[in-house]
Amino acid sequence: MKEDPQPISHSDLMRVWRIVSWAGLLGSLYGLLCILGAPRVKWLTELGATAFDFGLIAAAGALALAFQIVGAFLTNRVRRRKLPWMIITILHRVLYSAIVVAPFLFADERLRMWWIVAFVLIHDALAHTGAPLWFSWMADLLPRDSMNLFWARRQRFITALTTVGMVAMALGFEWFERRGLVSLGYTLIASVGIILGVIDILMFHWVPEPPHEPLREQEFLRHLLEPMRDRRFRSFVIFMAYWNFAIFIAAPFFNPFMIEDLKMSALTVQLLGVASSVGMVVGSNFWGLLCDTYGFRPALQVLAVGKIFAPLYFIMLPADSRLLLPCLVVFMVIDGFLNAGTTLAPQGVLLKATPRRNRTMYIAVVNFLSIGLGATVASLLAGKLIDWLNTWAIVETHGYRLRGYHWAFLLSIVLRAAAIPLANRFEEDRHTSLSNFLRVMLSWRSVAATVLVGILHSAQNEARRVWAATRLAGLRSPLAIIPLIMALQDRSLTVRRAAADALGKIGTDAAAEALAQALFDPKSRIHARAALALGQIGGPESLRALLQALRTSDPRVLRATIASLGRLRDTAALVPLICLYHDLDDEALKERIAHALKRIAALESLQEVYSALGSPAIEKR
Fold first, then answer.
1. 400 pLDDT band (50/70/90 cuts)?
2. Membrane spanning segments where (predicted)?
3. Is 314 in the same domain as 427?
4. CB 33 within 8 Å of CB 190
5. Is 518 exposed, middle or buried (0-12, 13-18, 19+ CB in 10 A)?
6. How far is it, in rounded angstroms, from Cα 240 to Cα 369?
């Protein structure tokens, strides 16, 4: 069996990925309107939810991740993934209406809350059953080397437009909140979300599904245990399980804390979420490029340190109300920037560092152990701890009032710090030092390269894309290599030429391999540019490709190839060039070969070259 499916053409992939991105936007709006927005927190608070209830709801959602194992088993058994995924996920979206109508069904507060928790579990169980089918499908659809860049662009697009939705939702819900119509407002907002969520799934009708070979020859238990038997992958599983435990001691309670303790309106909390989204938009392409270029281990090491500070910000919020909101806005932007990395890096490991034949089970096991168990236990313990501490462990000092939420945040800080050594143990094929990663990450060139890459891959104007490729060549940032390689397949010939020139100036082994492919691709139409760029890069890969290109009958490509071999000055080119010299009748090309031989052999003059060649044209020259 092949490890990777036959890729679709670049133009078709870009068209399909636009559909996936727009569908993802609708799915994100479903999540925002129904699940993740501040209106739901306010709605639950109005229904009498305590910190333990919030922890219980978070735990139910996390526990449902066990159904990813069911989804992985299903993925390994079916030949077609699209139809079962669409059916399961549409049912999951429609089922959320059972949660929305809870206030109209039950007068008893506790019975109502248990109904909500039960349907959160069922709703999320369906979502997680379908998730492995979808991830397996998308992983087969995307090119392996630039997978993170595609995900980053999708995440950036979705987050940017979802931010607009956040503002609209916050303003709309504010109207209901001011009039004491919280339940009605949330019901209407969630209904819109459910409709958008169903449309999201229907759009995938136009997304092709690459061939998928089900695994029928091995037993379920062997598939299930394989991720934990994989020594290199096991360290990632342990890190993710512990890290999510540490994160979820605090994460589910940030919004309830702002609404209950800080007495903020749902509008204010939601607008702070917009600030976080701005950070994610800024960070998505940046982290995607870093992960594609340097791997996931150094990214996870940096993120493990950075995420320590999230709970600390809430503990140290100033008592002065004039400073409170500005400080929270700055924190939310920074935290959103880090969240872009915490989304892309683990997702990249799951999609790139797992075997295709059992990838869905790898993903399911990691998600179940890290979120299904780690997050579930953490949410339940923290919710109970907060309610318990609120009864007696309230401390007031120097204008600060520390309650149960603060103690949970402090515990999360300590636990997050202990995750750093676990991130250091994660193994991957690429060996990039943390110091080198930080040097590139903190360089202004990397920031500039991220902006230019965004222009290169999203600008509709050809001149803008050419300008971006040219500027990337001047920056010589390693983050530009993979995007420029992708630009070798741009629909514009001018952009492809600019990308080849830029790769020649930056020069890496990966660039040489891509240029060698372009040199022999009959559709590329940049053969001469690719040959010249290979001459600038040098190395064994470039030499092999250029020697093979001596067989071409295209004079323009031959001229560029001869010039590049002369530039490389590798003696391995002497015999092929001499043979070509004697086979040619074109005097201009023969003269170019003579100049190349002079450089390679380090001779004083062309006369020595012609003498060595025994050329009859010596006297004439």
1. low
2. 20-39, 51-74, 86-107, 113-137, 157-176, 188-207, 236-254, 266-287, 299-317, 323-341, 362-385
3. yes
4. yes
5. buried
6. 8
∠566-571-576 over CA atoms, to 5°? 75
In degrees, to the nearest 5, what angle opens at C-alpha 190 toward C-alphas 342 and 153?
Answer: 35
- Are 5 and 210 in contact by the 8 Å Cβ rule? The answer is yes
Residues facing 395 on adjacent strands: 402
Domain boundary among 452, 474, 506: 506
Contact 16, 209 (CB under 8 A): no
The answer to the question of residue 4 being in a domain is no
> Is 545 found in the same domain as 498?
no
**Distance between alpha carbon 383 and the CA centroid of its chain, in Å?**
31
**Closest residue by Cα to residue 583 from 545, 552, 546, 621:** 552
Label residue 355 left, alpha or beta by phi (over 0 means left) and psi (-120 to 50 means alpha): beta
Query: Residues, the chain, total?
Result: 621
Same domain, 85 and 177: yes
Burial (CB < 10 A; 0-12, 13-18, 19+), residue 90, is middle
**CA distances from residue 333 to 261, 274, 468 in whole angstroms, order as listed:** 22, 9, 27
CATH number at 592 reads 1.25.10.10
Asked if residue 5 is part of any domain, the answer here is no
The SS3 call for residue 400 is: strand
The pTM is what? 0.74
Q: Which residues contact 554 (CB under 8 A, 6 or more apart)?
A: 527, 528
Same domain, residue pair 602 and 571:
yes
Provide the domain count of the chain: 3
Domain extent, residue 559, equals 514-621
